[in-house]
């Protein structure tokens, strides 16, 4: 819905899929216990290219019984996987990482055809496998000075067990690797339910994991249509699953967490954000405008850490809006992710577009004014391009911090200032799990990703992300 260069699409999705050089990366079955399987019901669902709405393939629509079979496979595999050494797991993860990198062109093509985006995510996703391959060897314990004579108090870390992983469509590769990389490094086995919009990218990861030598049953993948709740219900209620890791909306996160409480599973919930992006009067406006472009339009605006509410100090508001509008209109080239020169792909779902349209209607009703775009990109059927970038003005630091914190969620927040005192003050005051100061990009495998308030619990990536898949065991040894 942005107003700039539109590159018409003449591509045929299936012809583009046919250009994948290693066709064995395109799997049309689910992956359970090291086998490619169809669901018990034999029903299939279609996966569409969001830029053309053309079907690119079909996959099994699996149910609770299929999910139980995957959990059983993961439970059996856990018995031997948990006993492997950290170094053995590390070497397998390194091999998996190398294979992802070697196949990145094909993986990117598959992802673009089901997820509408360009190539950056494969390297980002692979970085989690590489990081956790290294981190597997650092799940250190502790020795506590005992208050008793002739005693040693030890703390060790053990894998939590079978993990249920439920991932969204916006990062078809990285949301799986960020969770599964940590889980496998810790010695856990996993059952993944990938998003129904983007399952081919997920299954290609299984194919590469198998080639890397990751044993059968360690990674299992259950595919299912749309909102088929049975798979998620089984993953969150089956007693053999000891942890659930979910990325998605706060509403679904609450539901899953409630279901998981029946068997007291450990949970990681990486949920929605509503990120403030604040430009103070002392900011470098060129840097702030560049960073807003990167932050707002990353992944076509479909990340939970994209800037949602842009607050610009009233004294620099007009100058900032002019700079930013020029950048958006000069830089973003809209079209099919596989067309030459395109750097801005479609929204993956129709519902995503409906949300943008509703937000726009609300903004206009409240007196907002469209500076650029504001309509469907008619030249590109189905014209599914977003996002909305609302820019408000503010007059004082206290006011903007209050407005920034006035929501129930708290994932990421960004602000731009050159005043050192203000930088520490505002970074402390923002009620979020992650803060970008003078930058709009915060995601990396080495830093803890996660939120506060209703944005969820737990952290992903970094050494903190490994802890999410480990239980602490205390051993009191008297001698
Ligand atoms: C997400 O949107 O859930 C993840 C975004 C990121 O990794 O930057």
UniProtKB/TrEMBL annotation:
Query: Which protein, by its recorded name, is this?
Result: Succinate-semialdehyde dehydrogenase, mitochondrial
Q: Which InterPro entries match?
A: Ald_DH/histidinol_DH, Ald_DH_C, Ald_DH_CS_CYS, Ald_DH_CS_GLU, Ald_DH_N, Aldehyde_DH_dom, Aldehyde_DH_Superfamily
For this protein, the record's CDD domains field holds: ALDH_F5_SSADH_GabD
Q: Pfam families under this entry?
A: Aldedh
Kindly identify the residues recorded as the active site: 270
Q: Which organism is it from?
A: Linderina pennispora
Entry's Gene Ontology BP terms: gamma-aminobutyric acid catabolic process
User: What Enzyme Commission number(s) does the record list for this chain?
Assistant: 1.2.1.24
């Amino acid at each position: 819905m942005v107003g700039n260069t539109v590159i018409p699409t003449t591509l045929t999705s299936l012809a583009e899929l046919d250009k994948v050089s290693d066709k064995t990366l395109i799997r049309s079955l689910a992956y359970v216990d090291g086998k490619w399987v169809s669901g018990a019901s034999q029903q299939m669902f279609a996966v569409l290219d969001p830029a053309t709405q053309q079907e690119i393939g079909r996959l099994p629509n699996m149910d609770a019984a299929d999910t139980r079979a995957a959990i059983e496979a993961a439970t059996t595999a856990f018995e031997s996987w948990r006993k492997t050494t950290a170094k053995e797991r590390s070497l397998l993860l390194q091999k998996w990482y190398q294979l992802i990198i070697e196949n990145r062109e094909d993986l990117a093509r598959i992802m673009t055809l089901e997820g509408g985006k360009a190539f950056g995510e494969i390297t980002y996703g692979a970085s989690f496998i590489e990081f956790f391959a290294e981190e597997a060897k650092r799940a250190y314990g502790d020795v506590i000075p005992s208050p008793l004579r002739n005693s040693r108090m030890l703390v060790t870390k053990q894998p939590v067990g079978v993990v249920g992983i439920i991932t969204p469509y916006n990062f078809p590769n990285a949301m799986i690797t960020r969770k599964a990389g940590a889980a496998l490094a810790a010695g856990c086995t996993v059952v993944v339910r990938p998003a129904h919009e983007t399952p081919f990218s997920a299954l290609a990861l299984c194919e590469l994991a198998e080639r890397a030598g990751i044993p059968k049953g360690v990674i299992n993948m259950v595919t299912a249509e749309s909102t088929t709740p049975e798979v998620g219900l089984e993953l969150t209620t089956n007693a053999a699953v000891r942890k659930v890791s979910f990325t998605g909306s706060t509403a679904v996160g609450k539901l899953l967490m409630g279901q998981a409480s029946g068997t007291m599973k450990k949970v990681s919930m990486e949920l929605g954000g509503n990120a403030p992006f604040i430009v103070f009067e002392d900011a470098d406006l060129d840097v702030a405008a560049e960073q807003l472009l990167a932050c707002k339009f990353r992944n076509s605006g479909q990340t939970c850490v994209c800037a949602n509410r842009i607050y610009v100090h009233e004294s620099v508001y007009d100058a900032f809006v002019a700079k930013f509008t020029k950048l958006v209109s000069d830089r973003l080239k809209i079209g099919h992710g596989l067309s030459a020169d395109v750097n801005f792909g479609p929204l993956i779902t129709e519902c995503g577009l409906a949300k943008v349209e509703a937000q726009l209607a609300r903004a206009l009703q409240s007196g907002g004014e469209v500076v650029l775009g504001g309509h469907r990109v008619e030249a590109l059927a189905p014209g599914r391009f977003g996002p909305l970038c609302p820019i408000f003005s503010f007059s004082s630091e206290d006011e903007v911090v209050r407005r920034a914190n006035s929501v129930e969620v708290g994932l990421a927040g960004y602000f731009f200032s050159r005043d050192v005192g203000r930088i520490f003050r505002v970074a402390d005051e923002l009620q979020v799990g992650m803060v970008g100061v003078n930058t709009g990009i915060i995601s990396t495998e080495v830093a803890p990703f996660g939120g506060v308030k209703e944005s969820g619990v737990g952290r992903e990536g970094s050494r903190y992300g490994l802890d999410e898949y480990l239980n602490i065991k205390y051993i009191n040894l008297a001698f």
